[in-house]
From TrEMBL:
<dbReference type="InterPro" id="IPR005025">
    <property type="entry name" value="FMN_Rdtase-like_dom"/>
</dbReference>
<dbReference type="InterPro" id="IPR050712">
    <property type="entry name" value="NAD(P)H-dep_reductase"/>
</dbReference>
<dbReference type="Pfam" id="PF03358">
    <property type="entry name" value="FMN_red"/>
</dbReference>
<dbReference type="GO" id="GO:0010181">
    <property type="term" value="F:FMN binding"/>
</dbReference>
<dbReference type="GO" id="GO:0016491">
    <property type="term" value="F:oxidoreductase activity"/>
</dbReference>
<dbReference type="InterPro" id="IPR029039">
    <property type="entry name" value="Flavoprotein-like_sf"/>
</dbReference>
<feature type="domain" description="NADPH-dependent FMN reductase-like">
    <location>
        <begin position="3"/>
        <end position="144"/>
    </location>
</feature>
<dbReference type="GO" id="GO:0005829">
    <property type="term" value="C:cytosol"/>
</dbReference>
<protein>
    <submittedName>
        <fullName>NADPH-dependent oxidoreductase</fullName>
    </submittedName>
</protein>
């Protein structure tokens, strides 16, 4: 069974993107598609990292735990809002904390915005950062426009049937790349 880590990237008060992380957790668990862990960056309350984890003299238990969750995951879903055309510093911070943990890791990207484009402007910059450290970003994206109308705070979509259909394509692509990676390691 796949082990999927879902990174909820926003640490802002009143954040809306976390509802999409909750949706994916429920979607995956209800369909028994994997063992799911939500890594909520707001709960970690990390400082700004001055170095990669392997070079930090006294890493905290939280840093080591986060790294272990990413390392042990067979795939990762990143749920990120779009802030001024980019992704939050909290996400860049944890991407840069790790290196080997990201290498050839299948990563699927879900973007969220209050506007009509669903965070589509953030995809290119986030993909580029992940590519530079060797992550395998899957080609399917999951943009969520007008988040206030699309999901409630508990991660329940306004149009469950349409959202589940869209999520099916997205999740199937992630699972394909997880299996492809596992086949090359066998």
């Amino acid at each position: 069974m796949s082990k999927i880590a879902i990174i909820s990237a926003s640490v802002r008060k009143g954040r809306k993107s976390h509802s999409v992380a909750l949706y994916f957790k429920r979607y995956l668990e209800e369909r028994q598609l994997g063992e799911v862990t939500v890594l909520d960056l707001d709960a970690y309350d990390f400082p700004l990292f001055e170095e990669r984890l392997r070079l930090i003299e006294n890493p905290t238990e939280q840093m080591l735990s986060f790294a272990k969750q990413i390392e042990e995951a067979t795939g990762v879903i990143i749920v990120t809002p779009e802030y001024n055309g980019g992704y939050p510093a909290s996400l860049k911070n944890v991407i840069d904390l790790l290196y080997n943990e990201w290498k050839r890791k299948p990563v699927a990207i879900a973007t969220v915005s209050a506007g009509a484009f669903g965070g589509s402007q953030v995809i290119t910059s986030l993909q580029f950062s992940l590519w530079k450290i060797g992550a395998l970003t899957v080609p399917a994206m999951f943009p969520v426009p007008t988040i206030d109308k699309t999901f409630n705070e508990e991660g329940v979509p306004a149009d469950a049937e349409a959202m589940d259909k869209k999520a099916g394509v997205f999740i199937n692509e992630l699972l394909y790349w997880i299996k492809a990676k596992q086949a090359t390691e066998a």
